[in-house]
Every structure is written in structure tokens, then in C-alpha cells.
Automatic annotation (TrEMBL):
GO terms for cellular component: plasma membrane. It is a multi-pass membrane protein. The chain crosses the membrane at residues 12-36, 48-72, 78-100, 116-141, 153-175, 187-204, 233-253, 265-285. It is found in: Cell membrane. Residues 17-289 form the MASE1 domain. Keywords: Cell membrane, Membrane, Transmembrane, Transmembrane helix. Its main location: membrane. This is Integral membrane sensor domain MASE1.
Length: 332
């Protein structure tokens, strides 16, 4: 018994360090398209990574968020505000975790209430904390002025929220996906899913360069949500967002010739639309199919009860319900 606690502590420390490393590595994606020397970004993946880590492995991992965020801030801004800004990010992610747990959030994301909770509590509400703390500190140190405070705050808030909306569903799917059930997956469905990813990549690439549009991803996203629910929609949505981010960084297609503010606004609207469409539609389809299965199971149980009553009332006659069911089966 005396060796269990140290062993548990070692595991937690390793998880904290791994989370800090993941936050630092994923922050490089956001810094590529950052505004004002990387200070704010319209897409900040570390927030999604942090929220999922807390939901999947527990609140004990919060020091990893603080450590990883502090390291990132030290390399991207004034050192004097690195720790306070990291505290703001950590507080936002912890509040997201607390709010989701309070409403009974399930990491399987198989209910519409879970999707709405992730959108409005985990992303939009909780990330107000990090954006407000961070932008206020930038104003205090003179990095931003009063005139640029609101645009910077809005970019920071939507960037953190997009990190939760785009990254969290994908990671939750990977963490909680029942992999054992997918060992014998239908090869036709596997080919269909791979083809969907390839078509999404190719179609977005061609449409961006040739036509300058990015909305072609939405029909494929709807198809993925309908056919595969969140395990299909999350990768397709993430791929579509990655393609849009690449186009924004390179500056071709829709983003050709636009200034940085317009580019970020378009990118935020696209990523938000992709994330909300894929998440809400997937969960709605999953919930509908689960309710249909429960209804069929209830009807089957009711049929068994009626058959037993029929047998009890007519012991010398064959069950009419069974004859009816056999006739329908034979006719098919």
C-alpha cells in the first residue's frame, strides 16, 4: 500500500510534463497566424488540448497548463506578464472544466446538451477569462493601446474559443473512441471514410486556388456527420480548418490581397462555422439514432409482455402475436 501513492504521483508528474509539452508544441500553430508578433491568434489549439486533458485525466493536471502557457508567453511577449497571462489561461481552462462537470457533461459527446455545453460554457463563456486577463495585461504594459484593445480582445477570445471548438471534439473522439469495436470495421466504410478525407483535401485545395472559395467543405462535413457522426466529422472538420489556416498563412484564394484583420475575421468565421456544424449535426444524429434504438427495444419488450399475457389467457391456443410476427417475417 505504501508504494501506491508515490507511483501515482510519478504518473501525474509525467502527465503534467506531457501536457506542458503538448501546449507548447500546439501553440506554434497559433503563433504562425498571430497578430502583433504572435501575441494574439484567431486559432489557439492549446486551449482545446488543455480542456480535453482536464476532462479526460482529471483536474490534477492544471499545473501542466500553467507551465506550458508560461513557457509560451515568455517567448512571445514581455516576461513580466508571462506568469499572470498563463494564470489567466489556466483559470479559463479550469473554469471550463468545472462548468462542464456541473452540468453533467459526458466526454463521449453523444447528447445534444453536451455539445451545447461545450460550445457555450467550455468555449464562449470560459475563454472570456483568458482573453480579458491577457489583453488587460498587454494594455498595462503598453503592447496594445486603447484604440486596439477591443480588436485584440476579440481576436484573443475567438482564438481561444476556436481552439476548444475545433480541437476538443477531435481529441475527445480519439480518447474515448471504443477502439476494440473498430477492429472488425466494415472495409467498405473504412474506404468511404478515407475517400472522404482525400476528397476534402483535394476539393478544398483546388477550390481555394482556382476559384478562391472555401465553403466547398460543408457538404463533405455534413456527409461525414451523417454517416460517421463525430468520429468522422471531427477529422474532416479539423482537416478543413487546417486547409483554411494554410491558405490564410500563404495568402492565396479567399485570402489573397486582404489585410491581416480581414484575413483573421474570415478565418474565424469559417473555423467557427465548421466546428459548430460538425459538432451539433453529429451529436443530433447520434442522439436520434440512440432514441430510435431505445424505442425499438421498448417495443420489443412490450411485445414480449403482450405475448406472455396472451399465452396466459389462451393456454390452449397458439399466440396470435407470434403468428402475426411469423406471417410478417414469412411475407418479407
Amino acid at each position: 500500500m505504501r508504494f501506491r501513492k508515490p507511483r501515482r504521483d510519478v504518473i501525474v508528474v509525467l502527465q503534467i510534463l506531457a501536457l506542458a509539452a503538448a501546449i507548447y508544441l500546439t501553440s506554434q500553430i497559433g503563433l504562425v497566424i498571430g497578430l502583433g508578433q504572435g501575441r494574439t491568434s484567431p486559432f489557439w489549439p492549446p486551449t482545446g488540448v488543455a480542456v480535453v486533458a482536464l476532462l479526460a485525466f482529471g483536474i490534477d493536471l492544471w499545473p501542466g497548463i500553467l507551465l506550458g502557457s508560461a513557457i509560451v508567453e515568455m517567448f512571445t511577449g514581455p516576461v513580466i506578464v508571462a506568469i499572470p497571462t498563463a494564470f489567466g489561461t489556466t483559470l479559463a481552462c479550469v473554469c471550463a472544466y468545472w462548468a462542464l462537470r456541473k452540468v453533467g457533461f459526458r466526454v463521449e459527446l453523444d447528447r445534444l446538451k453536451d455539445a451545447l455545453a461545450l460550445v457555450f460554457l467550455g468555449a464562449f463563456a470560459a475563454m472570456l477569462i483568458s482573453s480579458t486577463v491577457g489583453t488587460t495585461l498587454l494594455l498595462y504594459t503598453g503592447v496594445v493601446s486603447i484604440d486596439t484593445f477591443l480588436p485584440t480582445w476579440l481576436t484573443w477570445w475567438t482564438g481561444d474559443a476556436m481552439g476548444v471548438l475545433v480541437v476538443a471534439p477531435f481529441l475527445l473522439t480519439m480518447v474515448k473512441l471504443p477502439w476494440r469495436r473498430y477492429h472488425d470495421i466494415d472495409s467498405v466504410r473504412l474506404v468511404e471514410f478515407v475517400a472522404l478525407l482525400v476528397i476534402t483535401f483535394g476539393l478544398m485545395l483546388v477550390a481555394e486556388k482556382a476559384l478562391g472559395v472555401i465553403f466547398v467543405a460543408f457538404p463533405l462535413l455534413v456527409w461525414a456527420a451523417w454517416r460517421f457522426q463525430l468520429p468522422g466529422a471531427a477529422p474532416v472538420g479539423l482537416l478543413a480548418s487546417a486547409m483554411a489556416i494554410h491558405a490564410a498563412v500563404v495568402g492565396y484564394g479567399t485570402f489573397d490581397g486582404r489585410n491581416q484583420s480581414d484575413t483573421m475575421m474570415i478565418l474565424q468565421l469559417f473555423n467557427g462555422s465548421v466546428a459548430l456544424t460538425g459538432l451539433l449535426l453529429s451529436v443530433a444524429v447520434t442522439e436520434r439514432r440512440r432514441m430510435q434504438a431505445e424505442l425499438e427495444r421498448a417495443c420489443g419488450q412490450l411485445g414480449q409482455v403482450i405475448e406472455r399475457i396472451d399465452r396466459a389467457m389462451r393456454p390452449d391456443e397458439p399466440s396470435r402475436l407470434r403468428r402475426w410476427a411469423e406471417d410478417r417475417t414469412t411475407s418479407k
